[in-house]
C-alpha cells in the first residue's frame, strides 16, 4: 500500500509534486488544521505529517497518529510540536534550519531600516497629502551606521543579521545561551553580554533571534522595556511570545522606547489592539521567510526528510532531524 502524507496547507506546488512522486499526498485547506481536534481526527490515516507553524501538534495528536513515522515542520521554529511526545512514540521530528537564515536576516534589516528612518510614517504623510516641500526637521530618524545592535539568539539567523549589520557599520553586542567561539565572534567584532538587561541598556536596536522556550517566554517584559532607552528600537522576527505584547504596546504609547518592527505576535493571527494603534511601530504578518526561493527551499527540506524516513534511510543521513 502506498504511504500517505498529510500536508496541512497548500505550499509551493513543486514541493507537493516531489512528494507525489513517492506517496499519496493530501493537501489540507488553509487554516483547517490550526484546530487540534481536526488534526487528531485526520492523523490516524497518515504515515507522515508536514505541518505549518500554526498547527498545534500536541501529545494528543501524536498519540492518535498510530501510523505516524515523521513530522516535518514547514519552519525552522518548532515550538508548535511536542517533540518529547513524538520521540516517546518513536516519531521523528524535522525542521528547516539554514535555508531561511538569509531571507529572515534580510527582512530583519528591512524592518530596522524602515523603523529607523520612519519609512511607513513618511509614506502615509505623503499619501495623506501633507508633503509641503523639503523640511529640515521632517522625519528625523536613526542612522544604523555607528549604532549598536543587540542580538538576542546568535544562531544561524542571528549571525546572518550580524554580518549584514557589520556591513552597514553597526557595532555588535549579543546574548546567547552560551558564548560563541572566537572564530565566530572575532570577524564580527561581536561582544558577548551575559545579561539581557545589559544588552537592553546598551543597544540602540535590539533584535530577537532566539527560539521560543519556557526560558524565552516574555524575555522582553516591562522590566527590560523600561531599561531600554527612549530612542531604542525593538525588532522581533522570532516568535511573538518572546515579547510581552501588552507591555510593548504601552511602552510605545508612553514613548518609553523609540520604535518597533514586529513580524510575529503572541496569539497569531490576533494582534493586541493597543499594538495596532501604537506610534512608531511597523507591523507585518509573519513574513520574514516569505521569498519564493526560500519558501520552496523550506518545503523541499521538509519533503526530503519525509522521503528519507518513509523510504527507510538511516536517520543519521537526514541532516534536519531533531535529535531525541
Ligand atoms: C518561521 O517563523 C519559521 O520558524 O520558519
Ligand atoms: C536558524 O536557522 C537558527 O538556528 O538560527
UniProtKB/TrEMBL annotation:
CDD domains reported for this sequence: GDH
GO cellular component terms, semicolon-separated: cytosol
InterPro entries recorded: D-isomer_2-hydroxyacid_DH, D-isomer_2_OHA_DH_cat_dom, D-isomer_DH_CS1, D-isomer_DH_NAD-bd, NAD(P)-bd_dom_sf
Residues of the D-isomer specific 2-hydroxyacid dehydrogenase catalytic domain: 5-316
Presence of the UniProt keyword Oxidoreductase in the record: yes
Entry keywords, A to Z: NAD, Oxidoreductase
D-isomer specific 2-hydroxyacid dehydrogenase NAD-binding domain location: 109-288
Keyword field contains NAD: yes
GO molecular-function terms, A-Z: glyoxylate reductase (NADPH) activity; hydroxypyruvate reductase [NAD(P)H] activity; NAD binding
Family assignment from sequence similarity: Belongs to the D-isomer specific 2-hydroxyacid dehydrogenase family.
Protein name per the record: Glyoxylate reductase
Taxonomic lineage from the root: Bacteria, Pseudomonadati, Balneolota, Balneolia, Balneolales
Amino acid at each position: 500500500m502506498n504511504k500517505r502524507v498529510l500536508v496541512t496547507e497548500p505550499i509551493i506546488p513543486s514541493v507537493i509534486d516531489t512528494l507525489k512522486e513517492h506517496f499519496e499526498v493530501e493537501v489540507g485547506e488553509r487554516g483547517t488544521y490550526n484546530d487540534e481536534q481536526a488534526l487528531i481526527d485526520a492523523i490516524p490515516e497518515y504515515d507522515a505529517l508536514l505541518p505549518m507553524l500554526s498547527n498545534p501538534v500536541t501529545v494528543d495528536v501524536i498519540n492518535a497518529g498510530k501510523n505516524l513515522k515523521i513530522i516535518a515542520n514547514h519552519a525552522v521554529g518548532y515550538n508548535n510540536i511536542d517533540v518529547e511526545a513524538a520521540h516517546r512514540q518513536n516519531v521523528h521530528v524535522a525542521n528547516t534550519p539554514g535555508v531561511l537564515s538569509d531571507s529572515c536576516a534580510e527582512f530583519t534589516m528591512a524592518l530596522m531600516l524602515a523603523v529607523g528612518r520612519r519609512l511607513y510614517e513618511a509614506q502615509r504623510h505623503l499619501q495623506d497629502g501633507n508633503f509641503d516641500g523639503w523640511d529640515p526637521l521632517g522625519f528625523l530618524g536613526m542612522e544604523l551606521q555607528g549604532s549598536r545592535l543587540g542580538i538576542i539568539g546568535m544562531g544561524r539567523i542571528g549571525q546572518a543579521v550580524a554580518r549584514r549589520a557589520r556591513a552597514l557599520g553597526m557595532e555588535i553586542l549579543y546574548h546567547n545561551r552560551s558564548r560563541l567561539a572566537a572564530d565566530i565572534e572575532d570577524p564580527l567584532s561581536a561582544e558577548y553580554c551575559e545579561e539581557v538587561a545589559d544588552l537592553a541598556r546598551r543597544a540602540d536596536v535590539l533584535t530577537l533571534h532566539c527560539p521560543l522556550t519556557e526560558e524565552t517566554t516574555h524575555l522582553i517584559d516591562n522590566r527590560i522595556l523600561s531599561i531600554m532607552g527612549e530612542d531604542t528600537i525593538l525588532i522581533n522576527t522570532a516568535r511573538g511570545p518572546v515579547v510581552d505584547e501588552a507591555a510593548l504596546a504601552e511602552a510605545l504609547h508612553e514613548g518609553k522606547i523609540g520604535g518597533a518592527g514586529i513580524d510575529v505576535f503572541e496569539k497569531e493571527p490576533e494582534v493586541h489592539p493597543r499594538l495596532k494603534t501604537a506610534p512608531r511601530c511597523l507591523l507585518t504578518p509573519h513574513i520574514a521567510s516569505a521569498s519564493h526561493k526560500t519558501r520552496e527551499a523550506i518545503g523541499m527540506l521538509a519533503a526530503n526528510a519525509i522521503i528519507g524516513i518513509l523510504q527507510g534511510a538511516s536517520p543519521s543521513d537526514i541532516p534536519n532531524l531533531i535529535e531525541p
